[in-house]
Structures are given as structure tokens and as C-alpha cells.
Write a structure and sequence with these properties.
single chain; 246 residues; alpha/beta
């Protein structure tokens, strides 16, 4: 009996050791990704992140970082309104447990790396009010967990995929106002059945407004003004759709 108990205790200790090693390794992956993000910043010595984002402290205690209580992995990153000048490195795609990413109202420039599409648990992607350029990586439209895509007030170009809702079946907010997007409004938006905010104003979209949009029963906000669109859809309510093209 004593031998069996001793064996069980040894196995338990080994399991705890491997679990601790695994957690440490994974959190180090998150820390490395965020330190790579920091190296892209231009910060002065008095900036809050200069000393706080350091390998000397647990990443879970860094400003703007929230870790999960169970796995102790980075679940949310919010560094909005922090006067950050820099770029978005591909390393952020290694934050595999990330649910919310908000870097809005900073001075981030350059392109959005396609590696952001590796964030398979992401629900909120908020890059509002920066200076991001290039096209929106198609990999982002493959994040099936995504609920909010907010890229308003940037300098993004290119078009939206026709089958935008093929994987984004949980999407609720698509806000890409004041960019340089062109092409047609995707007809596939009718399959985003949970969509309640579609804001694509002040881009360079052309053609007609897809009549399928009228079938989005949960849609509450529709902003398509400031484009080159024609509304040829009969039966729209004037109070809701009358200002679309203004």
C-alpha cells in the first residue's frame, strides 16, 4: 500500500512539473510576441510602456495586458490612446489565446500582417484611428470567432471578399469608415445573420447596394454614405435607408 502511494505521489509530482513547464513555456511565447511588438514602437523614456513592458516582470502584470485565470495566457491586449508610434509585427499572431485586440487611436502605420489571421480565438479586432495602409489580409476573414471588425479612420485600400461571411458567421460589427476601399459591396453580407452594424462610409465603393442587405433582420446601423453607390432596391424604409448615399 505504501509503495503504491509513493508511486502515485511521484506521478503526481511529475505531472505538476510538466504542467508548470508547459505553462511557463507558453507564457514566454506570449511575452516574446509582445516584446517584439514593443521593439517596433518609438517611445520616450517617460512613456508608461518603456519600463513596464519588461522581461523583469510577469507579462500578466503589464499595462494593457489581461491574462486568463485558468491557463495564465494573454487573453486581451488594450493599448488604445497611448500615443504609440510604430508598426504591427507578425509576432502578434503567436498570441494564440487572444480574444480581444485593441490598438486604436495611436500612430501605428504600415500594413496589417496576415499573421493576425492565426488568432483563432479572437472576437474583437479594433484598429480604429491609426495610419495603417495596404489591403486587409484575407486571413482575417477566416477567423470564425470574430464578432467585431473595426478598422475605421485608416488608409486601407483594396476590396472586401465576396464571400466575406463564409467564415465570419458570428460577426456583429463591421466598421471600416473613412479608408480607401474600392470595388463592390459584397453580396455575401446577407449571410452574416448576426450583423447589426455595417458601416462602410467614405470609401470608394461603387455599383449598387446589394438588395440582400434588406434581409438582415438584426441590422440596426447601416452607413454607406460617401461612396459612389446607387440604391436600386425597392421597398426600403426611408427613415432607415434614406441617408445611405448622402
Amino acid at each position: 500500500m505504501e509503495r503504491a502511494y509513493s508511486f502515485f505521489l511521484s506521478v503526481l509530482v511529475l505531472q505538476l512539473y510538466f504542467l508548470e513547464t508547459c505553462i511557463s513555456k507558453n507564457i514566454n511565447t506570449d511575452q516574446s510576441a509582445l516584446l517584439a511588438f514593443k521593439t517596433s514602437f518609438t517611445l520616450n523614456s517617460s512613456h508608461p510602456l518603456t519600463q513596464n513592458w519588461s522581461s523583469q516582470a510577469s507579462v500578466c502584470h503589464w499595462i494593457g495586458v489581461t491574462c486568463g485565470t485558468r491557463h495564465r495566457r494573454v487573453r486581451a491586449l488594450n493599448i488604445s490612446n497611448m500615443d504609440i508610434l510604430g508598426t504591427i509585427p507578425p509576432h502578434l499572431g503567436n498570441l494564440s489565446f487572444l480574444v480581444s485586440l485593441d490598438v486604436s487611436r495611436n500612430h501605428l502605420h504600415g500594413e496589417i500582417p496576415k499573421d493576425i489571421g492565426n488568432l483563432r480565438n479572437l472576437k474583437e479586432l479594433v484598429f480604429v484611428n491609426n495610419h495603417l495602409t495596404g489591403s486587409i489580409p484575407f486571413s482575417i476573414f477566416n477567423i470564425s470567432s470574430l464578432e467585431t471588425l473595426a478598422l475605421t479612420y485608416n488608409e486601407l485600400s483594396g476590396s472586401l471578399p465576396v464571400d466575406i461571411c463564409h467564415r465570419l458567421q458570428r460577426i456583429k460589427i463591421i466598421s471600416i469608415i473613412s479608408n480607401r476601399l474600392s470595388g463592390h459591396i459584397p453580396t455575401g453580407l446577407s449571410k452574416c445573420t448576426d450583423l447589426y452594424d455595417l458601416s462602410l462610409s467614405y470609401n470608394s465603393f461603387e455599383g449598387t447596394i446589394p438588395p440582400e442587405i434588406v434581409n438582415l433582420e438584426r441590422l440596426e446601423f447601416l452607413n454607406l454614405g460617401g461612396n459612389n453607390l446607387q440604391d436600386n432596391c425597392p421597398g426600403r424604409r426611408n427613415d432607415t435607408y434614406g441617408a445611405i448615399l448622402s
